[in-house]
Every structure is written in structure tokens, then in C-alpha cells.
Amino acid sequence: MRPGTPVRRLTVLYDAHCPLCVHVRHWLLGQRWLVPLRLVPAASDEARRLHPGLDHAATLREITVIGDGGQIWTGTDAFIVCLWALAEHRPKAEWLATPAGRPFARAAMTAAAAWRGATRDGAASCDERCEIPG
Fold first, then answer.
1. CB 116 within 8 Å of CB 15
2. Residues 6 or more apart whose Cβ sits within 8 Å of residue 76
3. pLDDT tens, position by position, 81-111
């Protein structure tokens, strides 16, 4: 990947065993995208096929976003990039990427990780069959 490589598409690897992650997946699907998103369950057969060189066990521990130019973002950076891809939230993402905004993005990720840890189940992945949360 060369610095400054434009991002034309993003793949978001999300934990399909996590109710919060599945809810965010559905929320992302309902947003207007400036950059197309492909939402794929982390460590799934599809994720392994699309990105064979990736540490798929790590993608289950932390949100991972992959750009079509080979860019990889994890954790707080992945959260910011997801927002950056959305029309309504790009200005907020640009602010969250600044030194002033980054602590807020980290706090949001810390809170989400704590909630995720308390609610994640070990059931089989729901892939595309997940119900939209109410």
C-alpha cells in the first residue's frame, strides 16, 4: 500500500456472536454511505477467503476494517473509519481523529468493549440471518 492510497471500499469485520456488534452492523446498513461498506462476520469462511493473510483470531477480539487498497484499521481507528464512511457522520469522524476528539473515540470503544465482554455469547455465527434488533 502506498501512502495516500484512496479508499473506494471498506470491509468491516464484526463479531457475529456479539449483540452490540450485530446491532451496529444493522445500523451501518441503514446509513447513507460515502464509501461502500462490506460487512462480514469476523473469522468466517468469507472473511478468510477475502483476507487469507489476516490474523482472524485477532479480528474476533477487536473490530477490524480493511480498505480496498490494503489499509487495515483496528479498535478506535476502525470505529473512526466506519463513521468516516457515512455521510451524516463524516464531520464527527474527522473531529474524533484529532487530538481533541480522540479521547472521546477511545472512551466510546472502551465502553463498547466492556458491554461486549458482558454480553457476547458463544453461539454459532448468525451471518446474514441475524434479526434486526428492536
1. yes
2. 102, 105, 106, 109
3. 999 999 999 999 999 999 999 999 999 988 8
